[in-house]
Design a protein that fits this description.
TIM Barrel, 2 domains, eight-stranded parallel barrel, four-stranded antiparallel sheet, binds (3S,4R)-3-hydroxy-2-oxopiperidin-4-yl beta-D-xylopyranoside
C-alpha cells in the first residue's frame, strides 16, 4: 500500500468535484463458526479506549488494510493489534496476486496476512475478485467467453481457498464510471451480465461469506455514479441476484470532501436491504471534521457495519504525501483519531443482528450450514435433495459423485461435482469419471485434476482434498464450452 501508482491519475479523470471515492464492501455478522463473532452491542457500557472497543459497543468493527510487508513492521503490528478488529489485504488478494498464471494460484502472501489477523481474533474482508485493475497478465490476452470463463474460474479458485474464513468479500470492485454508466473495461466487454455472474458464482462458491460491491465516488447521494450503483443494487435485490453489502471507499481529497448528504447515501443503500461500510477511508491531511463527520454518518445508520482505513500510519498510505490517516509517521494518534473515537463512542444506533441474507436463487441449499473447515459445500449428503441433477451413486463403501450446474451463459456453463464418502473408513484419494455431451469441452477445472477435456473425462483429487473422512464430502468445479448445457452422463466415483 505504500505507493501511489496509477491510481490518482485515474481518479482525477472524470471526477472533478467529487473526489476519490472508492469503495469496498462489507457486511455484518457472520454465521460461520470459523469466523470470530463479536459480543452483542451494548451502548450502556463504558466508552471504548481503542477504536475497536469503541466500535464494538454498537456492534460495529473498526478495520485497517495492510500489505504483507507490514508483517515485519513491529510499529505497525502493535497498533494494528491494539486498535483494529477487521483486516483487509491491500494488494495480496487482488487477481494478479492470487492467480499470476492461468489456473496457477498463489495464496502465500494473502495467507500470511490472513493468518496474522485471524490469530489475533480479527475478522477479515477479502479484496477483491473481479476488477478492471491489477489483473493477471493472461487476462489481457483474453476476451469474450474466454475472459468470462477465466473470471469465473478465478472467483471459484480463490473463494475455495478462503471458504468459510472471511466475513466479507469484495466480489466486484469499481465497475461504474463517473457518469453513472458502466465503466468500460475488458470485463464489461464480456457482456453486461458480468457483475451478476460474478455474484452468483461467488454465492455458490462460499455461501457463508457476505458478498459486496465496492466503489469510490459514490458517497454523494446526488452524484450520477452513486445513482448508477444504487440502481444496480436495487435491480439485483429485485431479481434475487445475491448481493449483501455495498462498500463506499470514502477516499476524500482536497477536491472531493465529505458530502453533506453522506448519511442519506448510506441509509438509502441500506434501505435496499444491504449492509453498508466505509471500506478504504483516508482524508487529505486527516481533516478532523471530515473524519468526525464520516464516522458519525455511519453510526447514525444501523446497517452501517464498520469503517476501515486504508492503512494505519501516514507512512502506510498509498496517498502518503497527503498524510491522510489517523496515526502519524511516529505512530502517534492525531486529533482525527480522537474525533473518530469519540464519534464511535457516541453511537446511538446498533447493528441489527442480521443473519446472512438470501440464499442463492439459482443454486444450492445450504443457507445455514456453515462450512467449518472442510467444505460441506452443497447439500448434506444424507438429507438435502439435489436441486438439479440426480446423484449417481457408487457402491456403498466407496465414494459417490453428485453433479449440479452452477451457472450458464450463452456458449457455456459452470458445473460442480460433490464427491462424498458414504462409508465409515477414510478415503485417501478419489477419481470421478463423467461423460460430456457432444460438442462440449472442458475449459478449466479447479479443486481437481482432469485427464481429458471432452467425451469421457476423469477428474482426480487435488493435493489438498483427497483425504475424505467418514461421511465427509468435497467439491470440484469446471467450466464447459459448448452450445448445450446437457448434464454429464455416466458419473462414477472410485477410490483407490
Ligand atoms: C491501491 C493500493 O493501496 C496500492 O498499493 C496499489 O498500488 C493500487 O491499489 N481502491 C481500491 C484499492 O479498491 O484496491 C486501491 O489500493 C486503492 C483504491
Amino acid at each position: 500500500m505504500n505507493d501511489v501508482p496509477a491510481r490518482p491519475k485515474r481518479r482525477t479523470r472524470g471526477a472533478a468535484r467529487l473526489l476519490l471515492g472508492g469503495a469496498c464492501a462489507l457486511a455484518i455478522t457472520v454465521s460461520s463458526m470459523a469466523l470470530t463473532t463479536f459480543a452483542r452491542a451494548d451502548l450502556s457500557g463504558p466508552p471504548g479506549t481503542t477504536l475497536k472497543a469503541a466500535a464494538e459497543r454498537s456492534g460495529r468493527y473498526f478495520g485497517a488494510a495492510m500489505g504483507s510487508d507490514r508483517l515485519t513492521d513491529s510499529g505497525f503490528l502493535t497498533i494494528a493489534s491494539r486498535e483494529f478488529d477487521m483486516m483487509t489485504a491491500v494488494n495480496e488478494m487482488k487477481p494478479d496476486a492470487t492467480e499470476p498464471n492461468a489456473g496457477q494460484f498463489d495464496f502465500r502472501r494473502g495467507d500470511a496476512i490472513y493468518n496474522w489477523a485471524n490469530e489475533r481474533g480479527m475478522r477479515f474482508r477479502g479484496h477483491t475478485l473481479a476488477w478492471h485493475g491489477q489483473q493477471p497478465r493472461f487476462w489481457g490476452s483474453l476476451s469474450g467467453s474466454a475472459l468470462r470463463a477465466a473470471m469465473i474460474s478465478h472467483i471459484n479458485g480463490v473463494m475455495a481457498h478462503y471458504k468459510g474464513k472471511f466475513a466479507y468479500w469484495d466480489v466486484v470492485n469499481e465497475a461504474y464510471a463517473e457518469n453513472g454508466s458502466r465503466r468500460s473495461s475488458n470485463l464489461q466487454a464480456t457482456g453486461n451480465d458480468w457483475i451478476e455472474v460474478a455474484f452468483r458464482t461467488a454465492r455458490a462458491a462460499d455461501p457463508s461469506v457476505k458478498l459486496c460491491y465496492n466503489d469510490y465516488n459514490i458517497e454523494n447521494w446526488t452524484y450520477a455514479k452513486t445513482q448508477g450503483v444504487y440502481n444496480l443494487i436495487k435491480d439485483f435485490k429485485a431479481r434475487g441476484v445475491p448481493v449483501d453489502c455495498v462498500g463506499l471507499q470514502t477516499h476524500f481529497t482536497g477536491g472531493s470532501s465529505l458530502p453533506g448528504n453522506f448519511q442519506q447515501t448510506l441509509s438509502s443503500f441500506a434501505a435496499l436491504g444491504v449492509d453498508v461500510a466505509l471500506t478504504e477511508a483516508d482524508v487529505t491531511n486527516a481533516s478532523t471534521s471530515q473524519y468526525q463527520g464520516l464516522t458519525q454518518a455511519c453510526m447514525n445508520v444501523p446497517r452501517c457495519v464498520g469503517i476501515t482505513t486504508w492503512g494505519i500510519r501516514d507512512s502506510d498510505s498509498w496517498r502518503g504525501s497527503e498524510n491522510p490517516l489517523l496515526f502519524d509517521r511516529n505512530s502517534n494518534p492525531k486529533a482525527a483519531y480522537t474525533a473518530v473515537l469519540n464519534a464511535l463512542n457516541a453511537a446511538s444506533t446498533t447493528v441489527p443482528g442480521t443473519p446472512p441474507t438470501t440464499a442463492p436463487p439459482t443454486t444450492a441449499p445450504p443457507t445455514t450450514a456453515p462450512p467449518t473447515t472442510a467444505p460441506p459445500t452443497t447439500a448434506p449428503p444424507t438429507t438435502a435433495p439435489p436441486t438439479t441433477a440426480p446423484p449417481t451413486t457408487a457402491p456403498p463403501g466407496a465414494c459417490s459423485g453428485t453433479y449440479r450446474m452452477v451457472n450458464s451463459w450463452n456458449g457455456g456453463f459452470q458445473g460442480e461435482v460433490t464427491v462424498a464418502n458414504n462409508g465409515s473408513a477414510t478415503l485417501s484419494g478419489w477419481t470421478v469419471r463423467l461423460t460430456l455431451a457432444g460438442g462440449q469441452t472442458i475449459a478449466n477445472v479447479w479443486s481437481g485434476i482432469n485427464t481429458g477435456t471432452s467425451g469421457t473425462v476423469s477428474v482426480r483429487n487435488a493435493d489438498y482434498n483427497g483425504s475424505l473422512g467418514a461421511n465427509a464430502s468435497t467439491t470440484f468445479g469446471f467450466l464447459v464450452n459448448g452450445s448445450s448445457t446437457t448434464a454429464p452422463s455416466g458419473l462414477s466415483c472410485t477410490s483407490p
